[in-house]
Amino acid sequence: MRSVTNKQSGFSSSKSHAACTFRVLSSLQINANVPQTTENESALILIRHGESMWNEKNLFTGCVDVPLTEKGVKEAIEAGKRISNLPLDIIYTSALIRAQMTAMLALTQHRCMKVPIIVHSETEQARRWSQIYSEGTKKQSIPVVKAWQLNERMYGELQGLNKQETAEQYGKEQVHSWRRSYYVRPPNGESLEMCLGRAVTFFKEHIEPQLLIGRHVMVVAHANSLRSIIMYLDKLTSQEVINLELSTGVPMLYIYKEKNFIRRGSPLGSSAAGVYAYTESLAMYRQKLDGNFQ
Ligand SMILES: O=C(O)[C@H](O)COP(=O)(O)O
């Protein structure tokens, strides 16, 4: 199956920001540059943010920074329950509040009881002022890295428009093409291909190296930035991705093993046997948690 390669790079992460983030992760004992010893396997959890206030109003959102609805908050908490027994070492979110809210709310349900801490490495001063000076406390935290590259696709001049009204004005086929095709750009917005160019580049440069050294990762992002990442993980073609739809607040689990991504579906419940039957390390982690609580 031909995997899709992105023709347009389009975006490059700022080197200084990446270097600063690296120093912060090192200080949190998440050494992004640990020698490339490949571990057996690691868990990758993907979650689209819970329902946002513009999802509720059926408005094109894109990179407009709107919060969750009460329903979205509940979805985030339910997502946390469903991943509460899965191992987690580092979290990546977009720069948008709906993804960050979802990540932080989900972690209130995790049985590891660790505190998710948003990494501030925008400037050297931000890094210094947000430092943690207790090794014990650091061990009880999970770094949350914000990355604009994981933002929702920028919907251009559709942002703020009602999806139903837009379909009535431009036709259902045109709106479906703007929303779901790979190459078509909304007016002055990003195509999915352009979104993939930044999201998957970030995934390969920053997230995959963490999985390679056995770190367990959660990515909380958006419908289209995650659709582009799943295209890469599942080797979907530009035709196949048209039918890929992601619900709000539903965790998706992958196992990363020998540089391959194995899709394991969505943990239906915190004790869903199926999830833990897949890999010994997940089952052992769950037993360790159970032991802590006996
Ligand atoms: O940005 C938005 O409007 C939603 O997050 C996703 O919209 P879509 O389902 O129309 O791509």
TrEMBL record:
Domain of life, per lineage: Eukaryota
InterPro entries per record: His_Pase_superF_clade-1, His_PPase_superfam, PG/BPGM_mutase_AS, Phosphogly_mut1
SUPFAM superfamilies tied to this protein: Phosphoglycerate mutase-like
Top EC class, one word: isomerase
Coiled coil feature spans: none
Gene3D superfamilies assigned to the protein according to its UniProt record, in alphabetical order: Phosphoglycerate mutase-like
Pfam family of the protein (one): His_Phos_1
Family: Belongs to the phosphoglycerate mutase family. BPG-dependent PGAM subfamily.
PANTHER family documented for this protein: PHOSPHOGLYCERATE MUTASE
Descriptive protein name: phosphoglycerate mutase (2,3-diphosphoglycerate-dependent)
